[in-house]
Please model this.
Amino acid sequence: MSLVNSVPEMVLTTKVDQLLNWTRKSSLWYMLFGLACCAIELMQTGGPRADLDRFGMAPRATPRTSDLMIVAGTLTLKMALRTKLLYEQMPEPKYVVSMGSCSNCGGLFQLAYSVCDGVDKVIPVDVYVPGCPPRPEALTDGLILLQKKMSEEKWLVRPSAEEAALLS
Amino acid sequence: MAGAAECGGGSVALVELSRVERDMEIAAIRRLLHDKLGAAVGVVEEGPHYESIRIDDDAVERAAMLLRDTPELRFDCLSNLSGCDYPGRGAIDIVYDLYSYEFDRSLVLRVSTRRGDPLVDSVERVWPAANWLEREVFDLLGVRFRGHSDLRRILLPEDWVGHPLRKDYVEPEQYHGISTVRESMLGIRSGS
Amino acid sequence: MSVEIEFTDDHGSAGGFATEEMTLNMGPQHPSTHGVLRFVVKADGEVMRRAVPDVGYLHRSIEKIAEKVGWHGFMPYTDRVDYVAAMTCNQAWAMAAESLGGVEVPRRAEYCRVIAAELGRICSHLLAFGAMGMDIGAFTPFTHAIREREMINDLLEELCGARLTFNYLRIGGVAWDLPPDYAHKVLRFLDRFIPLVDEFDDLLSNNKIYIERLADVAVISPEMAIAYNLVGPNLRASGVDYDLRRDRPYSVYPDFDFTVPVGKGTWGSVGDCWERYIVRLHEMRESAKIVRQALEGLPGGPVIAKVRRNFKPPAGEVHIRVETPRGDQSWYVVSDGSERPYRVHIRTGSFSAMSIIESLSNGLMIADLVALIASLDVVAPEVDR
Ligand code: SF4
Model:
């Protein structure tokens, strides 16, 4: 009796990339970055009903240990420069989810003099979640979308510059 | 529940003193201030919703002291302090909403200052609550307060230019390289 | 050889060791500053000399926007003045416009407003309760609070279609009547919820560690509270028995029978952090009482008065004071008779609560600062608007 046959269910063959991505996407730690009203919905999403923990997501207090920044709320100009700083403090690879109309495009506060119309003016954004505020379901959906994006990334063989241009 | 029982009934939004009673009250307060401060105390201004006493900008602090310390008045709380820009008159009005917990009475003071060089006495030493409220008026309307201990911008960043609640304020195109307008898909510019 | 170490009260260098003051930055991104608030802390070891608040990171120029959008159009923005308790801000704005325009509100609408506002108050105090526990280091109460909040969110969503930013009130009334069978649902929730408040007491309020952390910390005397214009639960915790709903009644509050909880100094002194916390917990019970009475006495009739779409109140100005969960919110609204407000100024409870922190901070431990902020129930949008 060969060894391979004795443990058929216990062996999984996979690619290293897939394995890495699977581990990464299943423990996505997000930074607590509630800026305004959307932060309340972010908290509710982390709460018992929507329960983000089941996706392996846990809130972190500091940018240095987080993989994901959920920009939840209105980004004012005074805050914008700090947001950039916080983003730069996060270790690579890092992702940004823009939650709510305000951080997508300024939303209701496009009329304001002190609001930065969209967080993408200061940092790159991976997923935009629309809504004012987005419901916990919507945010969860956005995060699943991000997980999907993460699972398609390549780490061992990086695409060359031309390939990357073609892909994008 | 005593308070609630007295003014039961009526779904009118605000329960106020009757017109006559209020008139007498505010006239008496004005007379009291006028006796002490003289011409710095102006007239009682009629309004559709309440009357206010007009005070000169350099007598506010003394008037405030009197209002707080006179035993029959005891306005121990500065409930609100707002500024409003009137470019037509070339003035900025500062409105003080005082409240006395002891007598459950409100009073509105009004101070006008020139728009070009707005300067009003600070009442911070009378009511500490004025500290931040005055800083806010300074930040958003550019009114300076004489004798304020720490007159800095409070809401906007230190290096902000202009005072946004003035009627002729022009919003900046950019701040530290971040542009403040966003082209919408429909080609409508935001921020205007 | 023995070294003599002498500790002095003011933690200065009078003892054996010379200490040095250090400057710490706390926020604006900090898990326990309740939104984007920043403090510059001057500390000597663990003891603070001064904590200077730096606000404005959420200044969204709501007051300027009021001058650009119309009277009706400003209603959604008032939700964002205090998103934790949007209903009461809606109410203040509606009252200001009605009082300027001389609009008579139907009685049923006032009842709907009160029901919505009081549910909102429970919702807001729940968050304060949960966040307070979390800041002190107890995570479990937070999950309990969020669970209950979801229930109220469901109720409010059924009422107006939104979970957080309600936009339910209109100038002249409310947008929609209560949905069918609503009273039954609310009562079922309250029947379930009120026993849970007692459970919260067991879970958190009377916890030994919790009391140790909060009792006698950052005591605010009644005189100081009034001088700094502290309002709402913070004021009542300092022993000042004052509630606008009872003492300067607006809307239909005179119809209801409720008590106003006041700080008593149960574990420490009147006006300490624990009192501020417990006053909120009691207020949830009182709000539940008001909701029950309002549902019982709900009159018939329309829920909105006839108000012109192009609403132009005559020139004039009003001061409106409304008891929000964070206390007396004072609105100064000026109309020049046009279709846009001329000036809106909002003095909020959190604004005055923030301004008191600097004078309280001397001598507190750094960890107590977190307790103080949480007990004052400061929310950033109300400070910055
Ligand atoms: S998108 Fe809406 S809910 Fe979210 S922060 Fe902006 S205004 Fe608030």
Observations:
- The beta strands of chain C are 22-26, 38-44, 47-54, 169-170, 173-174, 316-324, 327-335, 341-347.
